[in-house]
């Protein structure tokens, strides 16, 4: 597999789409740093901590790597080079694992490009300093790196097992679906048990206004019992959900890393199993 | 005889469709093996199985004596180069970078030989031009150069001249002959362009509807396709005696018919036969080429 890795790393670092991805993530971070700096200039009392958004780049990474892998991995099928690798004696498992390592490296570098630009903005005083400890910053970056790799492994399954343009379409839709699911789960979990009492005004046809008081009400979206446990499990396990928690709440523990490893192992194991049986046409 | 590839009752089924049905073929070392068949006859399917891109439903094959079920088949495959369907090239790379990529994939310690390979296939002057801007013929030659990295001694070319212009066809043909004659590389070429194959092949395998209908050497094919006079006489024993006397080669087909492989003086022949009480009933010129031979073999038109 070392031969495959050597060849594919050279291809990665010569790949234009990889560097476009890195520049996009760095540019995105630069744009966000600039908007926060503008806000700080416009509102005198506003102070923007760097840790408020240094991890939000990972929310976009799924889409970016889907596009990158759509070109980098799909080219192997469209150009027939995947056949060539197999013909000269590389096993399907080593081809799959090599692609996982290469694409994970690319995703992590793209994600780090975002983080580095935010950190540089903070170090240069363009935006505020970090409010959390260095140990926590390092741990969050480490955990997020595992989440990024787990998303890469999910997207890789699509590109290795489905050929043609439909693969790119499915991968991008899947990434959007993961973001939407993460937001939906977050909303349900953060729903309060009761809806606070409030008043609202109703104007009748003759112009008279009437104030209506709404009493304290049970929130139907509030989760309890097993349902809440299931939602919480997915919130702690799904990679985009983890990223959202790390980015918004700076919450993270070793379980995040363990569940990311589990996702990587399961998706890669299933991917290799099917890829070994696939006809490489 | 040493065989590079032997297949044994190889089958590939897609549900109820039999793409390959008990195919047994034998490719001798040093041969240019023309694999002839209509579109959809099973040529590419067989090549995919040999390259390990698909798995046989039943049957087996041996590459350099190593069975496909043996783990050592990967080592045997590393002695083989193949261009299956389309050339395996990275379109955004130059010809040189494509070859260097293949060297890395093969784990070769240096890039010595890259320039020689480019020269061999006539792509030494392509410079920084990317492969996606190459003509079809150039892509095909680059594909062959990639397949030649690591000095394989067996080359598989699937429809290598499909879509090429006459110049490209000549270039690829000359390259294949050069590889076979100068580097003793055994070549398997699948094609349905029979006139071209006839200029190259030393052995033939004819496939139809997933079955090998005939395997033969170029000499045997030449014999079968040789120009001759097909004669019907009252007694071929007398005809044989007379032709022996005239030192003319022939082949007796049955008691009344024979093929005569020369153009004798027909008056003298008829007179000599008449003296022996043998009558000539009919004579017709028989001229068969590879295409008509193939069509007689499998029936129908070539697509």
Describe the overall structure.
The complex is a heterodimer of chains A (281) and B (303). Chain A has 281 residues and is mainly alpha-helical. Chain A has one domain (2-194, 221-277). Chain A contains eleven helices and four strands, in the order H-H-H-H-H-H-H-H-E-E-E-E-H-H-H. In chain A, the strands form two sheets. A two-stranded antiparallel sheet of chain A has the order 1-4. In chain A, helix 8 (165-190) packs across helix 10 (239-249). The longest helix of chain A is centred in the middle third of the chain and has 32 residues, at 92-123. Chain B has 303 residues and is of the alpha/beta class. Chain B folds into two domains: 3-222, Rossmann fold (3-Layer(aba) Sandwich), CATH 3.40.50; 228-286, 2-Layer Sandwich (Alpha-Beta Plaits). Chain B is built from eleven helices and 15 strands. A six-stranded mixed beta sheet of chain B has the order 7-8-9-4-10-11, with helices on both faces. In chain B, strands 1, 2, 3, 5 and 6 form a five-stranded antiparallel beta sheet that branches. In chain B, a hairpin with a 4-residue loop joins strand 13 and strand 14. The A-B interface holds A 2-4, 6-7, 10-11, 14, 16, 75, 79-81, 83-91, 279-281 and B 48, 51-55, 74-75, 77-78, 80-82, 84-93, 97, 101-102, 104-107, 146, 150.
Describe what is shown at a glance.
With 281 residues, chain A is mostly helical. Helices cover 72% and strands 6% of the residues of chain A. Chain B folds into two domains: 3-222, 3-Layer(aba) Sandwich (Rossmann fold), CATH 3.40.50.300; 228-286, Alpha-Beta Plaits, CATH 3.30.70.
């Amino acid at each position: 597999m070392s031969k495959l890795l050597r060849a594919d790393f050279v291809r990665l670092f010569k790949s234009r789409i990889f560097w476009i991805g890195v520049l996009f993530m760095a540019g995105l971070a630069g744009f966000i740093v600039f908007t926060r700096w503008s806000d700080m200039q416009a509102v005198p009392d506003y102070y923007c901590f760097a840790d408020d958004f240094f991890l939000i780049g990972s929310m976009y990474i799924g889409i970016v790597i889907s596009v990158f892998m759509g070109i980098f991995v799909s080219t192997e099928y469209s150009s027939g080079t995947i056949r060539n690798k197999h013909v000269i004696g590389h096993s399907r498992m080593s081809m799959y694992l090599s692609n996982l390592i290469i694409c994970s490296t690319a995703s992590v570098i793209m994600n780090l490009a975002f983080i580095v630009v935010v950190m540089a903005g903070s170090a240069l005083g363009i935006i505020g300093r970090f409010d959390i400890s260095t140990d926590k910053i390092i741990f969050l970056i480490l955990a997020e790196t595992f989440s990024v790799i787990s998303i890469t492994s999910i997207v890789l399954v699509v590109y290795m097992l489905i050929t043609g343009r439909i693969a790119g379409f499915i991968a991008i839709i899947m990434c959007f679906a993961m973001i939407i699911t993460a937001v939906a789960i977050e909303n349900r979990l953060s729903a309060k048990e009761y809806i606070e009492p409030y008043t609202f005004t109703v104007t009748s046809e003759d112009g008279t206004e009437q104030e209506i008081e709404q009493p304290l009400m049970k929130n139907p979206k509030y989760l309890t019992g097993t349902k809440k446990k299931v939602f919480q499990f997915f919130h702690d396990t799904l990679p985009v959900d983890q990223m959202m928690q790390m980015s918004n709440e700076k919450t993270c523990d070793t379980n995040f890393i363990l569940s990311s490893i589990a996702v990587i192992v399961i998706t890669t194991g299933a991917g290799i199993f099917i890829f070994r049986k696939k006809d490489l046409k | 005889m040493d065989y590079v590839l032997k297949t044994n009752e190889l089958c590939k089924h897609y549900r109820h469709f039999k793409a390959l049905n008990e195919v047994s073929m034998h490719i001798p070392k040093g041969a240019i093996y023309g694999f002839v068949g209509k579109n959809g006859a099973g040529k590419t399917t067989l090549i995919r199985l040999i390259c390990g891109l698909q798995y046989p439903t039943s049957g087996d094959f041996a590459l350099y004596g190593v069975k496909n079920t043996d783990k050592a088949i990967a080592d045997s495959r590393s002695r083989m180069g193949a261009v299956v369907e389309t050339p395996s090239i990275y379109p955004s790379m130059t010809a040189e970078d494509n070859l260097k990529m293949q060297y890395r994939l093969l784990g070769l310690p240096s890039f010595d030989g890259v320039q020689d390979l480019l020269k061999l296939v006539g792509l030494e002057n392509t410079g920084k031009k990317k492969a996606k801007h190459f003509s079809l013929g150039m892509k095909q030659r680059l594909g062959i150069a990639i397949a030649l990295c690591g000095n394989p001694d067996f080359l598989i070319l699937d429809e290598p001249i499909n879509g090429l212009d006459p110049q490209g066809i000549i270039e690829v043909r000359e390259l294949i002959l050069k590889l076979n004659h100068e580097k003793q590389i055994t070549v398997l070429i699948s094609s349905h362009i029979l006139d071209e194959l006839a200029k190259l092949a030393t052995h033939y395998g004819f496939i139809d509807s997933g079955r090998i209908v005939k395997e033969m050497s170029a000499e045997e094919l030449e014999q079968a396709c040789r120009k001759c006079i097909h004669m019907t006489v009252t007694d071929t024993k007398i005809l044989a005696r007379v032709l022996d006397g005239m030192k003319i080669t022939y082949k007796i087909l049955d008691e009344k018919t024979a093929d005569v492989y020369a153009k004798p003086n027909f008056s003298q022949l008829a007179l000599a036969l008449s003296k022996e009480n043998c009558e000539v009933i009919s004579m017709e010129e028989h001229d068969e080429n590879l295409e008509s031979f193939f069509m007689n073999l499998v029936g129908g038109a070539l697509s």
